[in-house]
């Protein structure tokens, strides 16, 4: 994207003439651009960590981003297959983590306000049970929480300005952003020049990233870019302007009488075919030019009695329920239902015409690259489309319902935004540009490993747990319908409907994941951090990290990183390689000595910030000082701390500190949480063992450059569980030794279609044959598999049993060194069992998909056959045997 951003720089620089170059300069330590929830959180976090001069510049008047000026007034937060409570813990619909950090502070304040005014912390009746609020009331709370730092002079707030030009110093090893020029809203002429030691881009569309010439990406990623399994191989059906759609939300309030809106321009009932007054036969006759799936089409005639499906429109985003709240008036958020979303590709003809009049080719530009006047053209049509939906609801959906609460004709647009059209100032923005960061988060790092659909997902930590993780997140990869289809007979002059493109769906869910510091830091530009939705992840991952709580946490992480960078006068890019500085960032986010609620760093399900051991457990977990298993997502802080567990925690914890001969005395009856508290109190101020950086661009010298290595200091495959578990890396990678002795035999268990492997004999699951000299007690030829997930065929293939099976090989009597490897390159396998010559060497062991277990043993053969048994009778789980190696052990006193 460098060529695009440089062209943008040249264009914007033309607006600055010599007179404007004399503008007085305002200096600040930290400049934050964007009044979004992320920009707001960054300002508060940096202020709490002692940054003396913070300037927050926003292009409008509202703080709070999607909560307020985008009117997404129904909180969506981290969720996945495991849940612990939503809003209040008794609620039947729950979330993945306990609320923490600034998000909890904000929601506690909002819910307290709701309780006072409406009589309930959650005054609405939304479909999945989250907290709701009025946007204007939430905006006042955002300001209240920021106000102390404005009052003490740390934070200066500047409204209605946006950046048009950047000061970039090119003299160092990396270009450095040193300042920005701002123009007032509605103008292109700058009237404000701010120089800053560090800048955070928390804007809607990555304004700072663009004007500074920082690299970024946008639109769909081809599979070749990050090797994501769900990414399209061919982008021919994914034009440059295709991305998660925007939606112009509407807040409607209950009226005392009918308050219908006038018919919008270009209204066509066929735009809302899923709820149209058309008959089913008429709907089916509509031929779209793309593969639209209408699903179950409800026929909603104009009748007096509303159906349950019709009534759901009133409750799916009801933010105040007039039937139960003290306010006695219902307010509803209309956000995405019934085709309200506005795809950004294949625009309607009237929009194309208007855009092309501003610049040839403008209608095919990604919205990120558009000028503000060009975006306004898109925005006006998105508004018109939303109003068309409201008109449709008022005129064609249960218009004659006798109960006024079941008729949209008894609702009017809220006037709380102060806009002439009574709509929020901005659309809901699901996807922005993506900062080209030190590390780009990929789908395969965090996608659930259990199956192709979220209904199969089970609780587990993610495949990769980044060593520089700053907060926890979990969600599904949630693309709304990104495609736009037109009637074949009318083209883009007629009605359209949104549709779902392959790979752009919500069927995949993430595991319990972390957000790495590196994804805030540009790959090349210094003096700049990303925030809000302008951070380092792929388009697919961006669809899962865009929620209310996540954007607040991103802002907090950016603010904490900025504070440590400024305190030590170092570039943020140095922090992931400096363990002491990284721990200081985490201290800013999760420490009891700082104001506010500590942030959840490690994604345990059962840890609430109110627990006395919350900070200690989070901090020890982030250091890799707690023994873990991939599916044990509950820490159980109040369970007894067994002697064996305490010993393992101490061993792991001491690996991170640069002190010898540590001694601690612990009470034998301590809980796990109490043990962690005492251990953390003793460790937290000790000098840390520094990371060892072997090469400048490949820290662990594993052949994976840092820009593509999610685990910077873990050589080999980037699966974090190799490092966290007590099993060694060599035992879990399943790789055979490069050196093979002449006496060693290696058996690969694979199907008949697998070509012979050098150094291996092939076993295809056949019954023992004396001429061949090895085989199974029964035929297992139907129990061989290849996953095509890893390059080494001997790891990619295996024979399995769900019962108990026996393999034998004719060998001379004597002592033998035997190595077995179990695991599955594609899936988790639980409860595997292997014994050799009656000696149990693997017992009830589970492997994560893509990881393996090698086990070595020495046995005595007395009957002329080496015997290997796999599986446990009636176990009901798979044991997957990849390969087997064995060689004789020379008698004592002899040499090989």
TrEMBL record:
Signal peptide: 1-21
GO molecular function: 4 iron, 4 sulfur cluster binding; metal ion binding; oxidoreductase activity
SUPFAM superfamilies, A to Z: FAD/NAD(P)-binding domain (SSF51905), Galactose-binding domain-like (SSF49785)
Transmembrane segments: none
Domain of life: Bacteria
Keywords on record: 4Fe-4S, Iron, Iron-sulfur, Metal-binding, Oxidoreductase, Signal
Region annotated Disordered, chain positions: 219-238
Name recorded for this polypeptide: FAD dependent oxidoreductase
């Amino acid at each position: 994207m460098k060529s695009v951003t440089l062209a943008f720089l040249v264009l914007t620089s033309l607006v600055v003439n010599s007179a404007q170059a004399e503008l007085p300069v305002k200096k600040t330590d930290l400049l934050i651009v964007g009044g979004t929830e992320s920009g707001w959180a960054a300002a508060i976090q940096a202020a709490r960590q002692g940054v003396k001069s913070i300037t927050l510049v926003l292009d409008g008047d509202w703080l709070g981003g999607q909560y307020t000026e985008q009117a997404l007034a129904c909180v969506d937060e981290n969720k996945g297959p495991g849940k612990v409570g939503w809003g209040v813990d008794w609620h039947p619909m729950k979330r993945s983590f306990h609320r923490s950090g600034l998000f909890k502070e904000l929601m506690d304040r909002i819910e307290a306000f709701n309780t006072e005014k409406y009589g309930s912390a959650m005054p609405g009746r939304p479909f999945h049970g989250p907290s709701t609020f009025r946007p204007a009331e939430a905006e006042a709370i955002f300001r209240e929480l920021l106000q102390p730092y404005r009052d003490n002079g740390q934070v200066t707030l500047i409204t209605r300005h946006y950046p048009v030009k950047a000061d970039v110093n090119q003299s160092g090893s990396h270009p450095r952003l040193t300042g920005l020029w701002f123009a007032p809203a509605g103008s292109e002429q700058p009237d404000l020049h701010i120089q800053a030691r560090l800048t955070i881009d928390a804007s809607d569309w990555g304004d700072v990233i663009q004007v500074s010439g920082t690299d970024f990406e946008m639109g769909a990623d081809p599979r070749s870019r990050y090797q994501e399994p769900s990414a399209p191989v061919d982008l021919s059906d994914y034009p440059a302007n295709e991305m998660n759609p925007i939606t112009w939300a509407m807040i409607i309030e209950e009226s005392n009488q009918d308050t219908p809106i006038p018919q919008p321009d270009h209204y066509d009932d066929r735009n809302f075919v899923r709820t149209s007054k058309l008959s089913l036969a008429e709907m089916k006759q509509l031929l779209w030019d793309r593969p639209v799936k209408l699903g179950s089409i409800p026929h909603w005639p104009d009748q007096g009695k509303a159906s349950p499906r019709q009534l759901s429109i009133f409750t799916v985003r009801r933010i105040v329920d007039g039937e139960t709240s003290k306010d006695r008036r219902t307010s509803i958020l209309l956000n995405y239902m019934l085709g309200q979303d506005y795809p950004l590709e294949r625009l309607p003809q009237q929009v194309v015409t208007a855009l092309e009049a501003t610049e040839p080719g403008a209608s095919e530009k990604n919205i990120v690259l558009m000028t503000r006047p060009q975006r306004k053209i898109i925005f006006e049509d998105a508004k018109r489309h939303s109003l068309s939906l409201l008109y449709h609801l008022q005129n064609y959906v249960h218009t004659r319902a006798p109960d006024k609460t079941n008729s949209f004709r008894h609702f009017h647009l809220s006037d709380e935004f102060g806009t002439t059209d009574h709509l929020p100032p901005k659309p809901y923005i699901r996807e922005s540009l993506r900062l080209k960061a030190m590390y780009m988060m990929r789908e395969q790092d965090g996608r659930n490993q259990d199956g192709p659909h979220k209904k199969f997902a089970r609780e587990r930590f993610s495949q990769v747990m980044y060593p520089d993780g700053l907060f926890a997140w979990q969600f599904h990869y949630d693309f709304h319908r990104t495609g736009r289809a037109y009637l074949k007979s009318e083209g883009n002059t007629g009605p359209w409907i949104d549709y779902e493109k392959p790979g752009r769906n919500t069927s995949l869910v993430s595991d319990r994941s972390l957000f790495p510091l590196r994804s805030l830091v540009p790959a090349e530009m210094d003096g700049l951090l990303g925030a809000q939705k302008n951070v380092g992840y792929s388009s697919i991952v961006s669809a899962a990290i865009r929620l209310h709580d996540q954007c607040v946490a991103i802002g907090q992480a950016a603010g904490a990183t900025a504070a440590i960078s400024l305190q030590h006068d170092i570039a943020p890019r140095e922090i992931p390689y400096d363990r002491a500085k990284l721990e200081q960032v985490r201290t800013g986010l999760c420490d009891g000595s700082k104001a506010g609620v500590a942030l959840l760093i490690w994604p345990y399900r059962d840890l609430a910030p109110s627990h006395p051991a919350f900070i200690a457990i989070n901090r020890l977990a982030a250091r890799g000082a707690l023994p873990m298993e991939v599916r044990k997502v509950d820490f159980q802080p109040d369970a007894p701390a067994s002697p064996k567990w305490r010993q393992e925690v101490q061993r792991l914890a001491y690996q991170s500190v640069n002190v010898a001969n540590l001694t601690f005395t612990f009470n034998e009856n301590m809980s796990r949480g109490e043990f962690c508290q005492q251990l953390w109190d003793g460790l937290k101020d000790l000098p840390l063992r520094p990371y060892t950086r072997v090469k400048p661009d490949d820290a662990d010298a594993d052949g994976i450059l840092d820009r593509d290595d999610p685990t910077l200091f873990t050589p080999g495959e980037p699966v974090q569980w190799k490092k966290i578990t007590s099993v060694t890396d060599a035992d879990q990678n399943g790789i055979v030794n490069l050196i093979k002795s002449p006496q060693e035999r290696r058996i690969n268990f694979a199907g008949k279609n697998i070509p012979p492997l050098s150094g291996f004999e092939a076993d295809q699951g056949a019954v023992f044959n004396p001429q061949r000299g090895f085989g199974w007690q029964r035929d297992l030829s139907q129990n061989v598999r290849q996953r095509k997930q890893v390059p080494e065929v001997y790891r990619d293939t295996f024979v399995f049993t769900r019962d108990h099976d026996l393999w034998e090989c004719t060998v001379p009597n004597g002592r033998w060194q035997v190595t077995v490897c179990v695991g599955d390159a594609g899936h988790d396998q639980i409860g595997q069992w292997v014994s050799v010559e009656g000696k149990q060497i693997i017992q009830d062991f589970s492997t994560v998909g893509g990881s393996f277990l090698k086990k070595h043993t020495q046995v005595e053969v007395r009957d002329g056959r080496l015997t290997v048994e796999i599986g446990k009778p009636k176990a009901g789980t798979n044991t997957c045997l990849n390969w087997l190696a064995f060689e004789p052990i020379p008698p004592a006193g002899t040499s090989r």
